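Work Package 3 (structural annotation) set out to generate three-dimensional models for the target panel prioritized at the project kickoff. During this period the team completed the workflow that converts sequence records into discrete structure tokens, so that structures can be stored uniformly alongside our sequence database. As a representative example, we reproduce one entry of 407 residues exactly as it appears in the project archive.
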Amino acid sequence: MKKHLALAAAILLGSFALSAQMQVVKDAERALKDGKDPQEVMTIIAPAFENPETAQLAQTYFIPGKAFFQYYDQLLGYKQFNKLPEGGEVVMAQSLLMGYGLYNQAISLDSVPDSKGKIKTKYSKEIVNTIAGHFTDYNQAAIDLWEARDFNGAYQAWEVFLAIAESPVYGPKIPNMPADSTLGEIAYNQALAAWQADSLQNAVKAFTRAKAKGYNKKQLYDYAIAVASNLGDQELVFSLACEGQQLYGHEENNYFGYIINYYLQKNEFDRAFAIIDEAIAGDPNNAQYYFIKGILFDNQGKLPEAEEMFYKAVELNPNDSQILYNYGRCLCNKAYAASDAAPTDPDQSEQYYNQVIVPLFKQAVDYLERAWEIDNDNIDALNYLSNAYYNLHDEKMVEDVEARKSR
């Protein structure tokens, strides 16, 4: 008899708990009807999110979701009459995001089949119409959050915008769905927002989505490669560089450099040389190709071959700081090697120094100075210059170079 009483008491307590949570839901619904602030509605209904029974009710999420959408619409009216308080655009955007999250949860619970397999919805129609009706507002919300420098919020708002467009539930309710080209550009902007928020994986995801929708402008490849490089994802860098080279290789050689670097890191020199030789055959007056081939030889320790390629690159483009620097560096390394091979006899050593080593350092100085003159941020050129002047016993110029370093 006592066991039956205990069981009855437990059932009664469970019933009281559910009843209390249902009262919370009703209180929140009353607050909604009274036009209370959505945050107040959220505070009232919060305990219902924790209760196992009420947490599975669509109503629990629909009520606060509706409060946020109503609040957004109220602020939008203020905005149309220039009465929106300062910072109101951000509040509007945040309200839209909260409303979408809650409504999305509500519709997932509103569409659950009953024990007989039938789906009876109570809120879904209103949810779909409300979200579809605010479709373009999410794009504006993202723009407002971007301007407020809330880049993560901007990313989330564009994520909702694109999710609505791609949804089989909400999408068909959009009367004038933007073309994929427009959606692709928005996905590109979303990627930039994620990058600004230092959310690199999300940036990659958005760049990929933009490409899938046909957005393939050059800046996408440039920025996506930068993000992939920051992530250390060399396979992705290589893949993007191959695409970029195919589309924009005729404009610049950056993508080509990434491709070659990929093979360098894998020590696949034969593959790298085959690609660069093919490129040179197709465009024999391209200085960058000879420069890259010089880097390949340099990485293999083949200094004479590297020097030859760098010199060819200088001949074709004498105003590129990196080309000039690398040729000057190569001459310095040639001088160091010559110094190591100098005769030990003092008389012969001095003559060898003046006839062999000095001319190499002087020649190197000429190219390194030109490299620095073109690009004052080329600190590597200054480092080699300092050492070259030191070997030329020119203390005044050593001091001059060190002064330039500290500017």
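The chain has 19 helices and no strands.
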